[in-house]
Design goal:
L,D-transpeptidase catalytic domain-like, mainly beta, SH3 type barrels, 2 domains, elongated, seven-stranded antiparallel beta sheet, 261 residues
């Protein structure tokens, strides 16, 4: 819910103390990331050669979430010496990453996974969104098992892709929180590796397989499916070619999945 200017002014006194800490430069720090591999030993090309750490604030500073209640701009620095980065609408979520610098605060923009500055006169405090607890780069996957079964690739609070899936028969796809554990671009699936399989199968050329459970459940291209949006697998989230390819290129090892009815 958008915060009015009056409510924001009432909360300004309470939040002002947290913002008025000593100024500390807040700059992204490059870090070499460990390279991950697929099951066949090939490098996981989806992962970058480096990643940008969101900087920690000064000692004692606790990040907190805010929401815009006016249409405003974000900036690359606190002083307005460069062009604005983006114009954002009301109800946009940001996480405050450091103390106020002039009229602006440094915030993490989950939709773009970047650090920007925003004017304090346009924001007000809100509760922490649920996905912020497990999504380090803003990416997560929301999976609905109720027909029509589907998944949504999310960047923070913004959907970036949606498609139908076919999940497990007899409720074999279990609700819960998962992460992509490993990836195989072209997999062969054999029922002999699934102790409780309801029938025998040997499936070759299963493309874009991303395992998220130790029981073998994965997101993957399902070329043999006959119905989309309804149960039809042994526990996996089967997708059409375009959807599975998008998820392969967009997600990676560690990407969170929230599966629910």
């Amino acid at each position: 819910m958008a915060m009015t200017r009056r409510v924001f002014l009432r909360t300004a006194a309470a939040t002002g103390a947290a913002l008025a800490l000593p100024l500390v430069p807040v700059l992204p720090t490059p870090r070499i990331a460990a390279q991950t591999e697929d099951e066949d030993g090939a490098p996981d090309r989806n992962k970058p050669d480096f990643e940008v750490l969101r900087p920690a604030g000064p000692p004692g500073f606790e990040p907190w979430w805010v929401q815009t209640f006016l249409k405003t701009k974000t900036w690359a620095d606190p002083n307005g010496t460069v062009e604005s980065v983006e114009t954002v609408e009301p109800e946009r979520l940001f996480r405050v990453e450091g103390p106020q610098e002039g009229y602006r605060v440094p915030v993490w923009d989950a939709r773009e996974n970047r650090l920007v500055y925003i004017g304090v006169e346009t924001i007000g405090p809100v509760g922490t969104p649920h996905w912020a607890d497990y999504s380090d780069d803003g990416r997560w996957v929301d999976v609905t098992l109720t027909p029509l079964q589907h998944l949504v690739a999310m960047q923070g609070d913004m959907p970036v892709f949606k498609d139908l899936v076919t999940a497990g028969v007899e409720r074999r796809t279990k609700p819960g929180f998962y992460r992509v554990l490993r990836r195989v671009q072209n997999e062969t699936m054999d029922s002999r590796t699934v102790p409780d399989a309801t029938h025998k199968y040997l499936l070759k050329d299963v493309l874009y397989t991303q395992y998220f459970h130790t029981d073998g459940s994965a997101i993957h291209y399902n070329w043999w499916a006959v119905s989309w949006g309804y149960p039809g697998s042994q526990g996996c989230l089967g997708m059409r070619m375009d959807g599975s390819k998008f998820m392969w290129e967009w997600a990676g090892v560690g990407t969170p999945l929230l599966i629910h009815y």
